[in-house]
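Q: Got a minute? One more chain.
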Amino acid sequence: MALDIKICGLKTDQAMAAALAGGASHVGFIFFAKSPRYVEPVEAGRLREAARGKALAVAVTVDACDAFIGEIVETMQPDMLQLHGSETPERVAELKARYGLPVMKALPLSEAADLGRVKPFIGIADRFLFDAKPPKGSELPGGNGVAFDWRILAGLDAGVDYMLSGGLNAANIGDALRLANPPGIDISSGVESAPGVKDPALVEQFFRAVRAARDDRAA
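A: Always. Here it is, folded:
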């Protein structure tokens, strides 16, 4: 099974180059002002040019207003929208219809009962991103470097397409792939030397760890 890999929160040419060299299928840009990974739409539009024909560019917003999403779509020309706030199924459907773009809906999980939040979005969201619930006091809905119990995903309905996120890094990706067997993975803080600072060496290390884990499973 092919594994989609999204490197999220890119801000520099060096980080973009490392993501593409590793074989990322998706590259993500954060449009949430409180995040250390925030990037202006014009700069994201410049950076995403390197990914054309190589990886899908994802615009990540958090309960953003229509005007800002419109600016992002026009300026950056993303391949996909990721909604990482409290957006409803109706909001997902509205944005899909307006822009003709696929939408990935992020949902925070911590226990098996949280999987019930997925159902209202099935058939509306094109894909899900399952992240850990933010630590108490955090202003960021994602990128907190926190993992959840991946074993709860065994209770997910078959056929739900998703990316696994939250606290992934080179040290634990093997366990994540073994326990959850996700169709896609998303990493941000796990390849940073400081909040918002992607380290090309850590990006390369992560891709090596993914390949090693997959080789072990295939052996």
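A: The mean pLDDT is 93.
Q: Perfect, thanks.
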